[in-house]
Amino acid sequence: MKNVAVLLAPGFEEGEAIVTIDILRRLNIGVTTISCVDTRAVTSYHNIPMVADATLAESFDTTFDAVVLPGGPDGSMNLAKNAGVIGFVRRHDELGKFICPICSAAARVLAGNGLLKGRRYVCSGDLWQQVTDGVYVDEDVVEDGNLISGRGLGKVFDFALTVAARLEGSEAAARDHAEHIYYPW
């Protein structure tokens, strides 16, 4: 079974995190929610408390098939300034694992720490104008090697289904599931 780490920092965009977790788990992909603070308790952008499966310190040496980075104005800033998060993402990227930012995470977390490495990506709003080490593409989901980026909350289903399809190596199950939940993917 494939396994995915979803990194949760204070202020994470709950819709981006929860929909992605939901889609992946429905498709029998293992998901571990990881708190990027000292406790498993993390509060989302809209002050919804969530208890993660583990902390980053507990999971740091575990290797996952993909790392999902939800956005959120505060969430992405908190991920970006966390040295542990950057080390965790960098290690997975160097191992060729999928790196999956959505919304502001591509610009703030990856670009802000030199982790885009010239790859094509998408992010929310006009954050792309501050990015110098990647190539912005105006699409809902952009894939470049092991990088899968999503525009934002309104496109989270496209993002999650794409991540699931790439992890499985086939779009069949994701397309069947999209039809099951009445989503035209």
Describe this structure in words.
This protein is an alpha/beta fold. It is built from 7 helices and 11 strands. α1 packs parallel to α6 and α6 packs antiparallel against α7. The longest helix is centred in the N-terminal third of the chain and has 13 residues. It starts with a strand and ends in a 5-residue tail after the last helix. The mean pLDDT is 97.
Write the layout of secondary structure elements.
Blueprint: E1 3-8, H1 14-26, E2 30-35, E3 41-43, E4 49-51, E5 54-55, H2 56-59, E6 66-69, H3 73-80, H4 83-94, E7 98-101, H5 105-110, E8 120-121, E9 135-136, E10 141-144, E11 147-150, H6 156-168, H7 172-180
Radius of gyration, whole Å? 15 Å
**What's the total count of β strands?**
11
Average the pLDDT over all residues and give the rounded result.
Answer: 97
Kindly, what is the distance between the CA atoms of the first and last residues, rounded to a whole number of angstroms? 23 Å
Structural class: alpha/beta
- What is the quaternary state of this protein? single chain
Sheet with the most strands: spatial strand order = 5-2-1-6-7
Unreliable spans:
none
